[in-house]
């Protein structure tokens, strides 16, 4: 496929960095509003359902977003009807899993309905960003696709504050409705609505199933820590951990902005590719650390000021997860490089050891009642291991060939607001 790119990469990179900053600010604002209104217990329940529904929705997409980005048999943008068949499968699979989870947990009908809308919002959001990547619109369009869900959540929260609702099901439903509507409208608006004949969706469905395992393992590693915390610990701990993730999101907003554009231009053409990657790794770690250090050191001040004294137990978790954010930023860039040099089909194998380490770590943490700050170390160990595996594989790779599968974007793969 002939990818179309902005004439100046700097404008796209600058737009992404600015958007990451905007998403960071609005995400933390959303996190603060939810925490202030619902308190640790209510926020814990809110985060739990947001997390599980969003993860189920993105998990069900399999490799569809990646296939759409690299689809070379469809001219121009996709038509809405070309997305209907694959989305019918992904939405159906997500709702089946969600129904099974709900049968076990027996939530209120409003929570179950909100979870369905969270599934839809996350799928629409992921595909909207994929369409922008497909067209090489890594500046305004790509970043607007990422902004739409967060803007919708803030609009919903403003309405909820106006009606003075302090129940987490109402907040879950209000945010989910706004996000589902906004992301659906955005996706429809960016599709090709002209008279071009539709292309069969069969290759899209087949390729998305074939590429799903690698996407699943990547998504599992990115979300496993919060999934484990929501499953194993009481709601207050979930709320404190989510506060740490909000701070870690600031680190990722800076660090991952480089990885996004490293892939969008396929790493560029370098005489010394390993040297160029090494310099990019240092830049990524440096910019992530510049954000992580002040957030970690000043945690007690800004957590108490923004979230309230009830959230002070989150301070040690914040410090640890800020460091994890630096490691995850490096992991993100290295995963993209694996894809660029033709190792995309092996990402699944490369990530399995780290996923096993994280699973074992959370199992030990739950069984031995680790302190909450120690729990936050577990995902850091996983990202460090996968980064090391990626780096060894990249350095041993002799031939350089573009791969056929991009890594799922966390920012585009989740419409839920920052937790």
UniProtKB/TrEMBL annotation:
The keyword Nucleotide-binding does not apply. Keywords: Cell membrane, Membrane, Transmembrane, Transmembrane helix. InterPro entries: Poly_Biosynth_Transport (IPR050833). This is Membrane protein involved in the export of O-antigen and teichoic acid. It is a multi-pass membrane protein. It comes from Rugosimonospora africana. The keyword Membrane applies. The chain crosses the membrane at residues 21-39, 51-71, 83-103, 109-130, 142-162, 168-189, 281-302, 314-335, 347-367, 373-394. It is found in: Cell membrane. GO terms for cellular component: plasma membrane.
């Amino acid at each position: 496929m002939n990818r179309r790119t902005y004439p100046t990469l700097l404008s796209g990179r600058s737009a992404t960095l600015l958007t990451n900053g905007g998403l960071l600010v609005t995400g933390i604002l959303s996190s603060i509003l939810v925490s202030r209104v619902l308190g640790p217990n209510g926020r814990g329940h809110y985060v739990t359902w947001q997390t599980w529904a969003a993860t189920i929705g993105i998990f069900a997409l399999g490799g569809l977003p990646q296939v759409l980005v690299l689809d070379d048999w469809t001219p121009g943008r996709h038509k809405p009807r070309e997305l209907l068949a694959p989305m019918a499968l992904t939405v159906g699979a997500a709702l089946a899993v969600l129904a099974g989870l709900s049968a076990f947990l027996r939530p209120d009908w409003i929570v179950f309905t909100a979870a369905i809308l969270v599934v839809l919002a996350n799928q629409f959001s992921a595909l909207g960003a994929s369409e922008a990547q497909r067209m090489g619109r890594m500046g305004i369009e790509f970043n607007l696709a990422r902004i739409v869900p967060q803007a919708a959540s803030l609009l919903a929260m403003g309405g909820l504050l106006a009606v003075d609702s302090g129940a987490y099901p109402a907040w879950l439903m209000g945010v989910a409705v706004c996000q589902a509507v906004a992301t659906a409208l955005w996706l429809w608006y960016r599709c090709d609505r002209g008279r071009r004949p539709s292309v069969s969706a069969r290759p899209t469905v087949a390729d998305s199933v074939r590429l799903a395992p690698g996407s699943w393992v990547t998504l599992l590693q990115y979300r496993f820590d919060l999934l484990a915390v929501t499953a194993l610990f009481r709601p207050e701990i979930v709320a404190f951990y989510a506060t740490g993730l909000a701070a870690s999101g600031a680190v990722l907003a800076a660090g991952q902005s480089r990885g996004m554009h490293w892939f969008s231009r396929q790493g560029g053409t370098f005489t010394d590719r390993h040297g160029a990657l090494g310099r990019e790794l240092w830049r990524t770690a440096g910019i992530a650390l510049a954000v992580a250090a002040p957030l970690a050191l000043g945690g007690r001040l800004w957590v108490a000021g923004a979230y309230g004294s009830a959230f002070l137990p989150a301070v040690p978790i914040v410090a640890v997860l800020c460091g994890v954010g630096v490691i995850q930023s490096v992991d993100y860039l290295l995963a993209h490089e694996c894809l660029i040099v033709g190792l995309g089909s092996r990402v699944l194998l490369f990530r399995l050891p780290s996923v096993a380490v994280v699973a074992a770590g959370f199992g030990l943490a739950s069984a031995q009642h680790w302190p909450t700050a120690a729990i936050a170390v577990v995902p850091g160990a996983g990202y460090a291991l996968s980064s090391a595996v990626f780096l060894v594989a990249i350095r041993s790779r002799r031939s350089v060939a573009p791969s056929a599968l991009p890594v799922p974007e966390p920012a585009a793969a989740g419409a839920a607001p920052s937790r």
